[in-house]
Design a protein that fits this description.
The complex is a heterodimer of chains A (about 280) and B (about 170). By secondary structure, chain A is of the alpha+beta class. Chain A is about 40% helix and about 25% strand. Classes of the chains: A alpha+beta (about 280), B mainly alpha (about 170).
């Protein structure tokens, strides 16, 4: 048989073979042959399937990786945005709490004309020297602030304005060595002078020996001298030093104001100074 | 380095001193950047430039501080001048020299400062101030001295060869 004749009859032969297979399969004779073929093809199929599966996974992974990268970028930017928002909200929350406390102070003391809205009275700097205890505020003459104006927070007395300019003012803190405040104890009404110490603590001086000082007693401004209104909280007595041979008693006072973390303060721009009141009484 | 560069540099130093440094307290005190910079420059460039740096930094400190005007200027000029004398010392090359000079200069600066405050009529608790502020401050500045001195020495060698213009 020539080659051309064989190639011409091949399709028919294959069709016949297929038909024979069909018939043999239907007759149930083809099963052993199928089994042998399956034993050979199954591992090949499995291998191929696995390879294709892995290749598919690989392409899917590459596609997923691209999507994930994009998603990660989106999430990162979203996260950064939320983080900033969160920080801003926390800041606003803290500020709201501060202002709420300050508001409660101004409500509790309606006689004071208080200058200290949420944008003013903010501490913008501290004294550059270790030896001086001042803070700088972002409010000044335009807001009605003048020298010696008292400065407070909801927790008590901070100090008084020592210098003032346009848009700024400097506060001499009561913990400075040069600061003197006339004070009164709450329960025993002992009067004295609150003075700042080098280490930033407070001492109550010039308390007469006859007066009683007790640990835990609170100390307020007495209003004497005219620089501070009456009954502004200063601190609490932590230690009393009484020597028989001394003319006066001395007490250590823990300030109620946290001077290391001052952020917003109130500046009392109008109060009835005792000296002025006395003078006006005399005039009347 | 010309005064055109020194002025903004020292303004930035003092602003940092007023706005940032007081929040970083150690042993109840904070670093004194103007002293660190003035003394370091004085050691590197001599009394003339030390005094000029002390003057510029002191003016800026006095503008911000609540202390009597001139307290920081005079005190910084004194330490700038005296530390500048150390430039030609036989110990000048030793690594301990800036540390010891910074310790002594900080004490001198604070004593001068307190003296001026006292002369101006404000009460000064000398003993308490010395124990709770001056000594811890001097120790802290001495520890920080190499951190400021070494970069400034590099700056001095790189850019500061010419005389300052007065």
């Amino acid at each position: 048989m020539s080659r051309e004749r064989f190639q011409g009859l091949l399709p028919f032969g294959l069709i016949l073979l297929a038909l024979a297979g069909f018939v043999l399969h239907r007759a149930g004779v083809w099963a052993p042959v199928e089994g042998v073929l399956a034993r050979v093809t199954t591992p090949l199929l499995q291998g191929t399937s696995q390879v294709m599966g892995r290749f598919g996974e690989l392409t899917r992974t590459a596609r997923d990786l691209r999507d994930l990268r994009q998603r990660n970028r989106d999430l990162e930017s979203e996260n950064a945005r939320l983080l900033l928002e969160n920080v801003r909200y926390r800041e606003l929350e803290g500020e709201a709490a501060l202002l709420r406390d300050l508001l409660s102070f101004s409500h509790a003391n309606p006689s004071f004309d208080v200058q200290g809205a949420h944008v003013v009275g903010r501490v913008i700097g501290r004294d550059p020297s270790n030896l001086q205890r001042y803070i700088t505020l972002d409010v000044g003459r335009e807001e009605g602030i003048a020298r010696n104006t008292p400065v407070v927070t909801d927790r008590g007395l901070v100090g008084r304005i020592s210098d003032v300019g346009d848009g700024w003012s400097r506060v001499l803190l009561i913990i400075d060595q040069s600061s003197l405040v006339n004070a009164l104890t709450q329960s025993t009404r002992a009067s004295g002078l609150i003075q700042g110490q080098a280490d930033g603590s407070l001492t109550l001086h010039n308390v007469l020996q006859n007066d009683t000082l007790s640990v835990g007693d609170t100390v307020f401004t007495s209003g004497l001298g005219g620089n501070f209104p009456r009954q502004i909280l200063i601190g609490q007595i932590t230690e009393v030093e009484r020597k028989d041979y001394d003319l006066y008693q001395v007490a250590a006072v823990q300030a109620t104001v946290d001077f290391d973390h001052l952020e917003v303060v109130l500046v009392i721009t109008d109060f009835a100074a005792i000296q002025d009141a006395d003078q006006s009484d005399e005039n009347q | 380095m010309t005064t055109y560069l020194v002025v903004p540099l020292l303004v930035v130093v003092v602003i940092l001193q007023a706005a940032v440094v007081p929040h970083l307290t150690v042993w109840g005190v904070f670093a004194d950047l103007p002293v660190l910079f003035v003394v370091s420059w004085g050691l590197l460039r001599g009394p003339k430039e030390g005094t000029l740096w002390g003057f510029i930094a002191g003016i800026v400190v006095d503008l911000i501080s609540g202390a009597p005007f001139g307290a920081a200027t005079l005190s910084l000029m004194v330490v700038g001048f005296l530390s500048g004398l150390g430039k030609n010392s036989i110990f000048a090359g030793h690594f301990v020299f800036p540390v010891v000079t910074m310790f002594l200069s900080t004490i001198l600066y604070n004593v001068c400062f307190l003296l001026i405050v006292w002369v101006s009529g404000q009460p000064v608790a000398w003993l308490d101030s010395s124990v709770s502020i001056v000594l811890p401050s001097a120790v802290l500045n001495a520890i920080l001295a190499p951190i400021v001195f070494l970069p400034m020495r590099w700056v001095c060698m790189r850019f500061g060869q010419e005389e300052m213009e007065w």
